[in-house]
Amino acid sequence: MTKTITRILLTGASGQIGSELLKVLRRKHGPANVVASDIQPLADPELCDGGPFEFCDVTKRERIEDVVRTHGIDTIYHMAAILSATGEKNPQLAWNVNINGTYNILETAREHGMARVFIPSSIAAFGPETPRANTPQETILRPKTMYGLTKVAGELLADYYVRRFGVDVRGCRFPGIISHETLPGGGTTDYAVAIFYEAVKNRRYTCFLREDSRLPMMYMPDCLKSVTDLMAADFDRLRHHADFNLAAMSFTPAELAAAIRVHIPDFAIAYAPDFRQAIADSWPTSIDDSAAREEWGWKPAYDLPATVKDMLDVLSRRQAEGKLNT
Ligand code: NAD
Ligand code: SER
Fold it and tell me: N or C: which end of the chain has fewer CB within 10 A?
């Protein structure tokens, strides 16, 4: 069933994950073979690497078709989405982008006989009735956020397209992603990025989650590796498709602050929980990712101390050069 990947469309290329995935894909496949797309321009023009960019709203099926035909696309990495916190502020938008956008991508992939499609899910697929510690691969999926329910629907739809139409769709339930290139786009785990910028700039941070809110997290290099490893896996070895549990580390804001204090001893943290606390309280504290390990050899490289050291090294260097983006 596995077909060759030659021309790639990346949606959501201006976002936190898309902007870094773009670099990885262009390095691997050549800049001309990876079409970046989003509804907003790429934040860093250097990310373009001379490759093509198309404005493409994923809620507009004809526009996706147009881009696919123009560039002879045979593979889609679908990163365009509305995340949890933004989704709770505007559930109608989250439904439209996440449900209709994902459906449009899958239908386009079916019609054009695409080689492969990557569609991420999230720990937001789980809900308060799910076992929160070491959350199993197969478990209760009753999320209480609009974002979460669009992610469950995306997983089920992806499975349907695999079984019913033979479209090779793959994806993981990402935990909160920590990174230093593009700021996160409105999620509940965003504090775990903002805290590093504030630690480097101001030595203090006010967290919008409680100090004991334990959540699963992952450093960007591991996230990118998971995407490329899963997309390169032998289809015949996969029993799951677009719903792989994925884990790297779990921590609370207080534990993250303590790990930052190893490098910045005078770092201070305060807590002012807002509406995102209820979202965090409905998500797992840790994840069982044994299916991903067994079916395609998933293994993360970064734990909390390694992530903190690398984030602070990069951001401190950027601060010293007067180039710290916010
Ligand atoms: P992001 O918010 O940083 O980026 C999403 C991008 O989608 C943005 O650049 C935005 O402009 C674009 N977009 C929004 N509406 C669009 C539309 N109608 N058409 C085309 N583009 C549109 O998100 P991200 O963190 O890069 O997430 C990428 C994927 O990974 C999403 O599916 C998200 O649910 C999933 N995910 C992310 C995390 C995380 O912590 N970052 C965790 C779990 C899952
Ligand atoms: N980081 C994402 C969010 O908080 C999880 O999917 O929305």
Answer: C
